[in-house]
Amino acid sequence: MTKYIAPSILAADFANLQRDIEMVNNSKADWFHIDVMDGVFVPNISFGMPVISAIKKHATKTMDVHLMIVDPDRYIEDFKKVGADILTVHYEACTHLHRTIQAIKAAGMKAGVSLNPHTPVAVLEDVIKDIDVVLIMSVNPGFGGQSFIENTYKKVQQLKALIEFSEAETLIEVDGGVTNQNIEQLLEAGVDAFVAGSFVFKSENPSETINELKSLISF
Ligand SMILES: O=C(CO)[C@@H](O)[C@H](O)COP(=O)(O)O
Ligand SMILES: [Fe+2]
User: Fold this and answer.
1) Residues 124-171 pLDDT 10s
2) Which domain holds residue 85?
3) Which of 9, 80, 183, 203, CA to CA, is 20 to 30 A from 145?
4) Does the model's ipTM exceed the 0.90 cut?
């Protein structure tokens, strides 16, 4: 099965955003991971529609938009308009998750659902067949550069078992603290898509770092 590397733009140099986007375009990365934070669901504010539109103008790869916002239903159409291909909402931020998933798909995007580190995968049992991507948070959402939570491996295995049992075709994505030290173990646990922010953008040669991560998950 295809495996994906998704550099997180949150760790890019916003004063040189076009340069960093071109770097990702020219690397072996598969997706742009784009973190939207509202200062309510998480204790941090990142960026919104104008910045995503600007990214979309230059990006040549899948736009994987991770919403860390309350009541995301309000903006589904807007995120489609600015170029999201995958739109991921948090389980913890949705009162009517099934409805939200259907609305994302009806707007023409892939539907993602993210789980905070404390949320068990079992909460997705009744909607797993409707979800295109489950994004397991391997740090508490809100900031880049945090350390990877080791319990994530077990969670990925549990999610993989749930997907297989349900005969779903859902992809498993992991987000937070991903490096060349844990990516192979994550792959082994069943992860399909790997988000990496600081490890890529704070490295000496981000393009080579992306390609190194990609080579560790490609056979
Ligand atoms: O959603 C988030 C953080 O809330 C992530 O996408 C981070 O941007 C990942 O950054 P690193 O942990 O890889 O530095
Ligand atoms: Fe993210």
Assistant:
1) 999 999 999 999 999 999 999 999 999 999 999 999 999 999 999 999
2) 4-217
3) 80
4) yes
CATH number at residue 105: 3.20.20.70
Determine whether 175 is an active site residue: yes
Cα 168 to middle of ligand 1, angstroms = 27
Ordered DSSP codes for the chain? ---EEEEBGGGS-GGGHHHHHHHHHTSS--EEEEEEEBSSSSS-B---HHHHHHHHHH--SEEEEEEE-SSGGGGHHHHHHTT-SEEEEEGGG-SSHHHHHHHHHHTTSEEEEEE-TTS-GGGGTTTGGG-SEEEEESS-TT-SSPPPPTTHHHHHHHHHHHHHHTT---EEEEESS--TTTHHHHHHHT--EEEESHHHHTSS-HHHHHHHHHHHH--
Domains contained in the chain, number: 1
Residues with a CB atom less than 6 Å from ligand 1 = 8, 10-11, 33, 35, 66, 68, 139, 141-146, 175-178, 195-199
